[in-house]
Write a structure and sequence with these properties.
- This protein has twelve helices and seven strands.
- The model has no long low-confidence stretch (mean pLDDT about 90).
- Helix 1 packs across helix 2, helix 6 (about 120-130) runs antiparallel to helix 7 and helix 10 (about 220-240) packs parallel to helix 11.
- The chain folds into two domains: about 5-115 and about 200-315, TIM Barrel (Alpha-Beta Barrel); about 120-180.
- By secondary structure, the protein is an alpha/beta fold.
- The protein has helices spanning about 5-20, 45-60, 65-70, 90-105, 115-120, 120-130, 150-165, 170-180, 195-200, 220-240, 265-270, 300-315; strands spanning about 25-30, 60, 80-85, 110, 205-210, 245-250, 275.
- The structure holds zinc ion.
- InterPro entries: Glyco_hydro/deAcase_b/a-brl, NODB_dom, Polysacch_Deacetylase.
- It is found in: Secreted.
- It holds the Pfam family Polysacc_deac_1.
Length: about 325
């Protein structure tokens, strides 16, 4: 029995059992890696992404997020599935794009424009600082003995959690202090360039907003959130020469990372039509346009990913 035939059977069984009403789903990725990395344990390599798309194509009808959000209909007997990437990593262009082209699929890229301008976002600055400080004292980070005995990647994860819910201003000040002590004056470019964003858009992929500094909306003042949304939208629209109408919330949990009474309306006022969270679940006719679920099945095996995708899509957020 061929693997693709097997995946088709698994997908049909999972859809029948877990997602009988055929709700749609949206996957989110961050990176497509050259080789596996402890710092990005959930992200596929190029080969894994290639295999995963083969399996997903067999199980679901893969469409753009815009088409999915506006129709939410089962197509050809299969539920709709959308593919998205968050943050704007450069390997979305170098590694993911060729695989998407090979499979004839379109994705949406949600970009935090500070990364485009500076070449790196705060979380990767942490990884670079920890790397530069290998063998040095962890007293630098000011977190007591919290990092004792941890691996380099575990230290990075701890520090990311530690800084994640701070206001941008405070977080940047702390990282600047580390850079000064470590003598770091520049970083390698990890994020998409303006030119690469333009090519993605011209290839028919959607570009979406993700705030300028990748801020958690519930952490910043309303005025700062407004500025973050419009600055990001203006920069990306200027690059691609067309309007944005898709947004995804940084970090993205609707109960902790945004205020559902304030921010969806703010996004509508800014001109967005659809906004995506990171709350597991499928998308149906009843789903709120500004609080659409997305998910990331934490499975390394493509067949299990397809199975668990069908299962999560059947859940009502
Ligand atoms: Zn993000």
């Amino acid at each position: 029995m061929s693997l693709l035939f097997l995946s088709s059977l698994i997908g049909k069984a999972a859809t029948f059992k877990f997602n009988p009403s055929g709700r749609s789903g949206v996957l989110y990725f961050h990176r497509v890696l050259d080789k596996p990395s402890d710092n990005y344990p959930d992200d596929p390599t190029i080969d894994e992404f290639d295999e995963l798309l083969s399996v997903l194509k067999n199980t679901f009808t893969i469409v753009s997020l815009k088409e999915l959000a506006s129709t939410r209909q089962v197509s050809g007997g299969k539920p709709l599935l959308g593919i998205s990437f968050d943050d704007g990593y450069r390997d979305n262009f170098t590694n993911a794009l060729p695989v998407l082209i090979k499979h004839g699929l379109k994705a949406t890229f949600f970009i935090a424009s500070q990364g485009t301008e500076e070449g790196i976002l705060w979380q990767d600055k942490i990884i670079e600082c920890v790397r530069a400080n290998a063998g040095g004292s962890d007293a630098l980070y000011g977190v007591g003995g919290a990092l004792d005995g941890l691996s380099e990647s575990a230290k990075c994860r701890y520090l990311m959690e530690y800084l994640k819910r701070m206001k941008v201003f405070s977080r940047n000040a702390i990282i600047k202090g580390w850079e000064k002590t470590l003598g770091i004056s520049s970083y390698p470019r990890l994020m998409l360039t303006r030119e690469e964003i333009k090519v993605l858009s011209n290839e028919g992929h959607d570009i979406g907003g993700h705030t300028h500094n990748h801020v958690i909306l519930s952490v910043e003042s309303q005025q700062d959130v407004k500025n973050e949304i419009t600055r990001n939208k203006d920069i990306l629209e200027e690059i691609i020469g067309r309007k944005l109408d898709l947004f995804c919330y940084p970090n993205g949990h609707p109960s902790f990372d945004l205020d559902a009474d304030i921010h969806p309306e703010m996004l509508r006022e800014a001109g967005y039509s659809y906004a995506f969270t990171t709350l597991d679940g499928g998308i149906g006719k009843d789903s709120d346009d500004m609080l659409l679920s997305r998910f990331l099945p934490h499975r390394r095996n493509s067949h299990l990913r397809a199975w668990s995708s069908a299962k999560i899509m059947g859940e009502v957020a």
